[in-house]
């Protein structure tokens, strides 16, 4: 098939543009930036869920601490009442009951204060955990915002680049003979690549290594002969025609 060397070089440009278009369309169908957004969304929602659980745990402990302080206040009032009653009581039996109750109250007060200290420590720990979780939510929110911005930029870049590449392809197709384009499109449909360089011993379309006899026949063809790979049928442009 006749095709001047200068047009054979354009055929390689067409193959390069087609490869770039295919790559852009593939990335656009599920860009890595889109996957990154999904990952960051998962991290963000996990951080929010963790923060919500920590806040609920803090609220539970704070309510328990409030009840414990109420119980402590009640015991302190009970102790004060018993102590006042001791000063005015004269009957032995009454005094015995009051001292017994005071002893019980003191034991309960000790336990209550110990429990309050424990709950206060828990509150402090949960407050720190909530603060860390809130910081994690803000951090993952920033990461998510950044990922969304990157996806928006990528989408805009692809939307801008694809029309330019398609216009470049159209110009290249118009510069080539129709019979060359027909064979090229047929091979591209069949192989995924319509044309390629002869790189050393290998076909640039199917990547197979050609035999010495096959290479001799290819290099012996006239410069304006557009040769085809004897293995896959793809259009081959010889390296010596690239200068």
Automatic annotation (TrEMBL):
<dbReference type="InterPro" id="IPR056003">
    <property type="entry name" value="CT398_CC_hairpin"/>
</dbReference>
<feature type="domain" description="C4-type zinc ribbon">
    <location>
        <begin position="203"/>
        <end position="233"/>
    </location>
</feature>
<keyword id="KW-0175">Coiled coil</keyword>
<feature type="domain" description="CT398-like coiled coil hairpin">
    <location>
        <begin position="14"/>
        <end position="191"/>
    </location>
</feature>
<feature type="coiled-coil region">
    <location>
        <begin position="51"/>
        <end position="157"/>
    </location>
</feature>
<dbReference type="InterPro" id="IPR003743">
    <property type="entry name" value="Zf-RING_7"/>
</dbReference>
<dbReference type="Pfam" id="PF24481">
    <property type="entry name" value="CT398_CC"/>
</dbReference>
<dbReference type="Pfam" id="PF02591">
    <property type="entry name" value="Zn_ribbon_9"/>
</dbReference>
<protein>
    <submittedName>
        <fullName>Chromosome partition protein Smc</fullName>
    </submittedName>
</protein>
């Amino acid at each position: 098939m006749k095709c001047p060397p200068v047009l054979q070089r354009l055929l390689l440009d067409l193959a390069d543009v087609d490869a770039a278009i295919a790559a852009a369309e593939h990335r656009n169908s599920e860009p890595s930036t889109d996957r990154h957004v999904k990952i960051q969304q998962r991290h963000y929602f996990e951080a929010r869920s963790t923060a919500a659980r920590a806040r609920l745990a803090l609220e539970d402990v704070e309510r328990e601490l409030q009840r414990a302080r109420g119980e402590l206040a009640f015991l302190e009032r009970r102790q004060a009442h018993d102590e006042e009653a001791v000063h005015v009581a004269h009957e032995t039996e009454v005094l015995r009951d009051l001292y017994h109750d005071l002893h019980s109250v003191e034991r309960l007060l000790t336990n209550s204060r110990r429990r309050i200290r424990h709950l206060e420590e828990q509150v402090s720990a949960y407050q720190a955990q909530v603060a860390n979780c809130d910081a994690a939510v803000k951090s993952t929110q920033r990461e998510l915002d950044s990922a969304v911005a990157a996806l928006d930029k990528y989408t805009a870049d692809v939307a801008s680049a694809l029309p330019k590449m398609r216009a470049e392809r159209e110009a290249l197709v118009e510069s080539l003979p129709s019979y060359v384009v027909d064979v090229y499109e047929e091979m591209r449909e069949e192989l995924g690549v319509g044309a390629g360089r002869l790189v050393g011993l290998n076909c640039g379309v199917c990547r197979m290594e050609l035999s010495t006899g096959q290479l001799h026949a290819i290099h012996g063809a006239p410069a304006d002969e557009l040769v085809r790979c004897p293995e896959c049928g793809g259009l081959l442009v010889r390296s010596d025609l690239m200068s």
